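Re: the pair you flagged

First of the two:
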Amino acid sequence: MDQGGGLMRATQLAQQLAQQIDGVVRLLLPHGKRVGREWKVGSVDGDAGDSLGVVMVGDKAGVWSDFATGEAGDLVGLWMAARHCSLREACEQAMEFLGIRDHKQLQEAPKRYKRPAKDGMRSLPDPLRAWLTDERRIAPATLDAYRVASKDGWIVFPYLRDGELVGVKYRRPPKEFRQEADCEPSLFGWQAISPTAREVTIAEGELDALAWHTYGFPALSVPMGAGKGGKHSWIEGEFDRLAVYDRINLSMDDDGPGREAVA
């Protein structure tokens, strides 16, 4: 089977994997065995037992649950659990298993970007933390998840990707902004996104992303606000990372630039 355009959505891949269910369970859970309509094994790590079952036939083929742990999901979720990998890694491996190729064409050498220095970054002092938690109503756990810091009296929003600092934006309350120059355009917030998330919200600003996370929704932020043109230069570098999600919500201001961004 052949598909172009990078990675597929996780649910699409799970449906494709279900069509080859026998090969999938033998690959991921080789120590299991067929018992009636299910493939039985003791755990996602292949332990002896029968608490974990994967439906092998019918409309629910590929649905699995482990009654010992309460874990459950589709075949992409099983791939993540059995291989101890992220959603993106599971989708890449599943595509390889299915013979689905990535047809991204050769491009020019990528532009070289600067990596910002971490020198001088500190934990949030009480006044900045209070502004975020009391005035902006951001949960302390959210500040920790996004690793919000400070530097020379500014709030620091670190743009991390795979643990690497690729960009930094600063804010001095209430509305003074700046950012490191010549950094790679990327989304803010990957450090706070669960590897098991299937849905993500893209917000117009860092504080908007923090607010969504405070209310329980995994969220990222665009790096240069809403609008059009060069403000969307981050899309090329983030496209494949976003392609695996079943649903992407856009949360922009209800103004001219916000409407342009979602058009």
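Second of the two:
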Amino acid sequence: MRSAWSRWDWIGGALLLLAASTSSVAAEAPKFDGRGWTVGNHQKHARQSLTEYVLPGQTVENWKELVTSSVFSQPVPLAAFVEKLHSSLSQGCPSLVWNVIRQDEKTAVFEWRDAGCGGSEPQNELDRVTIEKDGLYRLAYAAKVKGPLAPERRREWLAILGQVPLAERSVGGTSQAGEPAASAPGSKARAAAQQLSTDDLAAGVRRSGWTCPAGVKSEVKGQMPGPQGPLTTWLLDCSNGQQYTVLVDPSGSMSAFQTPK
């Protein structure tokens, strides 16, 4: 088993996994945790793209850790997507352990593990799925280990999933990594994303399902490319002692995740 994505399909053809041939490319990969990830496989179709990242000495056919970025140009209801994936993974896999970490109308972050099903090795996976107007974006980290992920590794990858942009480019589009999409708002919208108050950010954290009674201080940490234009990264300290990374897109939409201590 290479990833959860290869273990399920949509009833009625809402999404199709295409049987395209595997190809290795020498494209530049995101740094993730800084261990030298490279693109081991990239496939693209008019309505779907798939990129798999591997560590040095590993391949998409023989890996111990794998990062997968998938984009579908057809948006679907997020709750139905998550439930369908859960149901599909559960079939024939009594050892499956499933946990939804956070879910709202646009984004779901969940994790699952098994003891080895269908002749595959035991596996853990952390997933982030986001629904946008132009499609569905998925980023996942998988590791072939028995039992739960080590707490430190789990915290690290949850933070990475919260900070990496949705995808390097949109399916069927012409926007390149680091360049705003043609339909992205202009400089005024980007400037507005950098002028939010601490109270605004605290409210965004609460809308994302996290606890932040009140914001104490906040600061802009930089920008990164996103499918709708640059994402502004904020660091927010809350009155309960928690610290959050908040990503703000040009429209003002926010995604928040706890910052590892």
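Residues 187-258 form one domain.

-B.
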